[in-house]
Amino acid sequence: MEQLDITIEEPVWPAYSKISVADFGARAEKGYCNGAAFQQAIDYCKQKGIAELTVPAGVYHFYEGRHPLFEGMQDFRFDGGGSELIFSTVAAYVKIRHCKRAVFQNFTVDWDWSCEQLASIGLVREVAADGSYFDLQFPEYEQVPEKLAIRTLNAMHPRTLTPGCELGREFGGERFGEIARKDRNTLRITVPKEEVPDFHFLRRGQTYIVRHYIYDANAFELHGNQHLRMRNVTVYSAPGHAFVTTGDQHHWTLEHCRIVRRPGTTRCISATADGCHISNSQGYFIIEHCDFSYNGDDCLNIHDNSVQGFVRINERTIQLGRVQDWRNPFGQGDLVEFRLADLSPAGFSGIISSVEWEEQQQRCTIAFEEPLPEGLPDNTILFNRRYNSGHYIVRCNFFHQNRARGILLHSSYGVVEHNHFLMNQGSAIQIECGAEARWAEGFGVEDLTIRHNLIESCDVNHWNMAVIYMGVYLKQGRTQYPIFQNIAIEHNTIVNCPQQAIYVSSCSQVAIRGNAILNPNSGPVKTERDGDENCVRNREFYQGSLMVSHGQDIQISGNQLLATVPAASKQIYVDGATSTNIETMNNVGFE
């Protein structure tokens, strides 16, 4: 792997000066909107070249969507002084765009839960014998609000109240029929007749995170910045992602940032979506000494978006469906690589000459500078090579007790080291690439090192069969093409995984060495009937504690397996892999 050299430049101040938001009328007073005062202070700093904007310690409220925008700041620092910024409008809390050598530090953001909760605890009190309804109690409320949006129900452990539980399920509220009030804090939810078989798992006493918001508004939107530092920033909650990074952003860092529930509350969620969502960017970032927890989706998601399928208009022009300009930002001059449905190269890349969007129809028409080859299949996958969110270091972080995965990796040239993963609902580390109806993410992963991590009790919901999982999602299933190459998984400790410890597929030049695996395959097998849309299919194909499928040039050596409970008898399982060098694992304990 190439040596990663990621240096974040500090602000350069020929002459240092600072002002306070208080100078522009900001007040730490509930009911007072600080939007105008903060924005006037920000704009003044930009106009006058002020080096630092400070905030006196206090709690500052923002209303009516009047939220801070930092645009084009250069050699600048924002110091929150330990303050809290509280929001109650469904819009991004703070936008930071096209800044250069900027630092944002020492403050907390949160949603005003006294106005409306982002999620609630739901307790199943009764299930009809014929499955036609169930009663869901909301113990946090004396009286359930009249209009309580039930967007999703996500299983949580009834005692620890953490996301996920053994064989846990989740489902969307759109599948319900009539919802009526049974008593002050209990709703009776009707299950349509055709849906009843799919809800066979409902039982009295089950507990769920009921999300009222999901991807509605982000805490921080970071777009097109260079040499940006986010330091000692806490997100207690947000109705969407906590941090989102897009566009030409490169060379940036999250340092000592936290996504956690506010202490002293009964909250079951922090951010309702990803902790940090990185897509269609220019990479070169460091995330270190952070604490991400209780968020409603992946703690960290690194990817660029692809598109599968097109209609040829003429020799230079194609039309794409199921696309949106924010998710698939094709533009003039972008280099697009064409891949076959199995992710292998189609042998053609073209430069875009023009793009026309039809947003209402989620459609765009792309013209290329050169003619496209004849015979390109209509299920070809497009990689927009203008973007590359790779080149990253993720180290010394704590990723824990969240819905979905700890880290979702779709980008190349990374080091993931010295992190602690605890009770992630899905895999601790998921390396993936693919295309399907719901999403299409990743261009493959090369040159990745995963080392010296502690992974404990992850894949709580038994989603992906392994706590370190590498695979594709394609309509036709696995691909023999090695979309994952030159990857080392070494010197990690993996404890108490319900299924496999490590699964790798569609890969080449992978080394799995020096790992300690304690009590793998320790949970009940989740059958197809117990699964949901986030679970891998064909679970009977997964064997052993460490498995290789559709791989080549795989090196497995120096790993240890220790079992204090009965585990799978077969330790290493190889299916359809070639040129594999395996050194038998040292086995201690139960056979």
Architecture overview:
There is one protein chain. By secondary structure, this protein is mainly beta. It has one helix and 49 strands. The protein has a 35-stranded mixed β-sheet that branches. It has a seven-stranded antiparallel β-sheet with strand order 11-10-14-8-9-13-12, with no helix packed on it. It has a seven-stranded antiparallel β-sheet with strand order 24-30-27-28-29-26-25, with no helix packed on it. Strand 27 (335-339) and strand 28 form a beta hairpin. The longest helix is centred in the first third of the chain and has 14 residues, at 35-48. It is globular. Residues 587-591 have low confidence and may be disordered.
Present the secondary structure layout.
Blueprint: E1 18-20, H1 35-48, E2 52-54, E3 59-62, E4 69-71, E5 74-87, E6 94-97, E7 100-111, E8 119-127, E9 133-137, E10 152-156, E11 170-172, E12 179-183, E13 186-190, E14 207-211, E15 220-223, E16 226-235, E17 243-246, E18 250-255, E19 258-259, E20 276-279, E21 285-288, E22 291-293, E23 300-303, E24 306-308, E25 311-312, E26 317-321, E27 335-339, E28 345-358, E29 363-368, E30 381-384, E31 392-395, E32 398-400, E33 407-409, E34 414-417, E35 420-422, E36 429-435, E37 440-441, E38 445-451, E39 454-456, E40 466-473, E41 484-490, E42 493-495, E43 500-513, E44 516-518, E45 546-557, E46 560-563, E47 572-575, E48 578-582, E49 586-589
Parallel strand pairs: 1-2, 2-5, 3-5, 4-6, 5-7, 6-15, 7-16, 15-17, 16-18, 16-19, 17-20, 18-21, 19-22, 20-23, 21-31, 22-32, 23-33, 31-34, 32-35, 33-36, 34-38, 35-39, 36-40, 38-41, 39-42, 40-43, 41-43, 42-44, 43-45, 44-46, 45-47, 45-48, 46-49
Antiparallel strand pairs: 8-9, 8-14, 9-13, 10-11, 10-14, 12-13, 24-30, 25-26, 26-29, 27-28, 27-30, 28-29, 36-37
